[in-house]
Amino acid sequence: MFRLFILKIRGHSMSPKICNGDYVISCKWPSMKVTRGMIVIVDHPRFGKIIKRVKQRNNVGALLLTGENSQSTSTEQLGWVHKKEVYGRVILHLKRKQITHSSPS
């Protein structure tokens, strides 16, 4: 089943690339391949929903994740995460400064 989500980012683990208050559009589909370098939303067993970059993938589908910011939770703290924990792949990033609100006429 194809899933599409709009998520507002809270936190600084991916800054300066993706900042607190930015939005991402994430999707997941049955045949989706998760590869090194992808930015993904993961439902981590210890940290809940997090956004990270895939650093490494092993041959059984487990992933090592990393943040962009040096203050991010470390790869060692995150540990290996199974690909079934991937909530979706980020396909679009909207900076909060790019988003404008308009009121109906």
Chain-wise SSE layout:
Elements: E1 3-8, E2 23-28, E3 39-44, E4 48-57, E5 62-66, H1 75-78, E6 81-82, E7 86-94
Antiparallel strand pairs: 1-2, 2-7, 3-4, 3-7, 4-5, 5-6
Describe the overall structure.
This protein has 1 helix and 7 strands. A hairpin with a 4-residue loop joins strand 4 (48-57) and strand 5. It is mainly beta. The model has no long low-confidence stretch (mean pLDDT 91).
Strand content: 35-45%
Order of helices and strands: EEEEEHEE
Distance from N terminus to C terminus (CA atoms, Å) equals 38 Å
What strand line-up does the widest sheet have?
A: 1-2-7-3-4-5-6
The largest β sheet comes out as: 7 strands, antiparallel
**Helix proportion:** under 10%
Please state the CA-atom Rg, rounded to the nearest Å: 14 Å
- Count of DSSP strands: 7
Helix and strand composition category: mainly beta
* Tally of separate helices: 1
Low-confidence parts, pLDDT < 50 over ≥5 residues?
none
Can you give keywords for this protein?
mainly beta; about 5% helix; 1 helix; about 100 residues; 7-stranded antiparallel sheet; single chain; globular
In short:
The chain has 105 residues and is mostly beta strands. 4% of the residues lie in helices and 42% in strands.
